[in-house]
Amino acid sequence: MNGVMTFDDTISAVATAIGEGGIGIVRLSGNRAIDIADQIFRGSTGKKKIADIPSFQAAYGSIADPDSGEAIDEAIVIVMRAPRSYTREDVVEVQCHGGPVPLQRILDITLRLGARLAEPGEYTKRAFLNGRLDLAQAEAVIDVIRSKTDASLKAAVSNLSGRLSDKIRSLRQEILTMIAHLEAAIDFPEDDIEEITAGNVSGSITIVRVELDRLLASAQTGRILREGLATVIIGRPNVGKSSLLNALLREKRAIVTDIPGTTRDIIEEYVNIRGIPLKIVDTAGIRETADIVEKIGVDKAREFVAKADLVLLILDSSAPLTPEDRTVLSLLPGREAIILVNKSDLPPVLDMDEVKSFVGDRPVLKISVLTGAGVDELEQTIADRVYSGQVTSGEAAFVNNVRHMNQIRQAGRHLGDALATIDAGMPLDCIAVDLKAAWEKLGEITGDTVGEDIIDQIFSQFCLGK
């Protein structure tokens, strides 16, 4: 989007989280933001008007109901005039005490004076429509808000700064250059020029496809950094599952006893492992049981294994494999897993050859959740498997969004179709059709060629006030 659009209405919303806090913010944006704020703000000297406050300077005073004159709260007001604001419109932020009552009272008054309650994500949507952010950067805003580790934050900030957008625009420009060469050859045909042009374009298409494949290779890591690695801890009862969760959390979150079946329900926590957010689940011990509640927990454990990105399967080094262990090991086929041989501080009894016959080439680590031995190695193994030799977040453009991944994949298919068209010796205009389709798909990532329905769907996922 280029330039600043003019919206007929002014929007208002509480921009801070629901609940009690030291500070709460009501944000106004639009052509009447300053006028509405002027009607409710009373400067500490009694003379200060919002219209007189320079941009990006704070003024102290109070907020009052303009009809009754009743003071509602002390406040600091900040004015950000268009186009140097988040939305590129006039923006006023009222910072008061962060209680739900004063915030709601102030919001209600702004609505009574002519503002409209902002829709979820509408401030960022206006920033996009007014050209301050492209669509990929706008989507990165919500990733910054939802970041759970430094690594996920770094990846989100990288995309917010435009690193992914710059890469996509560069690839679109390369495709556009190919299209221009094809159209020039179509408009000015000469002997053998079609064959030469098709050959040159074929090499350029291959180069762009390699770059798209590199972006797709980052998608799994990017998704994990954005959403968390769905990890499930499984094993027979009393093998150390809850103790492992506590060791990874560095706190006693799960109850640990010598009584089998202590964990009957599912315990779910986020764990920060070397900057990677693990959405980790401690399940009930898998065994045959007559206890109805425990049986439900066991069934849930099996369901989580089927959905998990990573399975941490625990065995007891100090005991031989039991039928229950073999039942747990039978769940491994088709699953990404790390095998943990716990209680390595005790004399070894477990037959490792039999274990390896079940686990194949999956990593097997000896640990002791009692002493902490092997936990650091486990964390490094998880990090290595997530990054899979790729650069870490912040060092390159990361695809961490399913929508972006789908558009890149579809663009790659269109480029593949273009190569097939060249190999079949078809006319140049047929090649151009495939290239234009790839160019448009990549444009949907940055918002250059996206429809209004997609835009509405994306911003509906944002929180109110952002």
Automatic annotation (TrEMBL):
K(+) binds at residues 238, 257, 259, 262. (6S)-5-formyl-5,6,7,8-tetrahydrofolate binds at residues 27, 93, 132, 466. Binds 1 potassium ion per subunit. GO terms for molecular function: GTP binding; GTPase activity; identical protein binding; metal ion binding. The keyword Transcription does not apply. Coiled coil: none annotated. Residues 228-387 form the TrmE-type G domain. Mg(2+) binds at residues 242, 263. It is found in: Cytoplasm. Pfam families: MMR_HSR1, MnmE_helical, TrmE_N. NCBIfam families: mnmE_trmE_thdF, PRK05291.1-3, small_GTP. Homodimer. Heterotetramer of two MnmE and two MnmG subunits. Belongs to the TRAFAC class TrmE-Era-EngA-EngB-Septin-like GTPase superfamily. TrmE GTPase family. PANTHER family: TRNA MODIFICATION GTPASE GTPBP3, TRNA MODIFICATION GTPASE GTPBP3, MITOCHONDRIAL. This is tRNA modification GTPase MnmE. It comes from Methylomusa anaerophila.
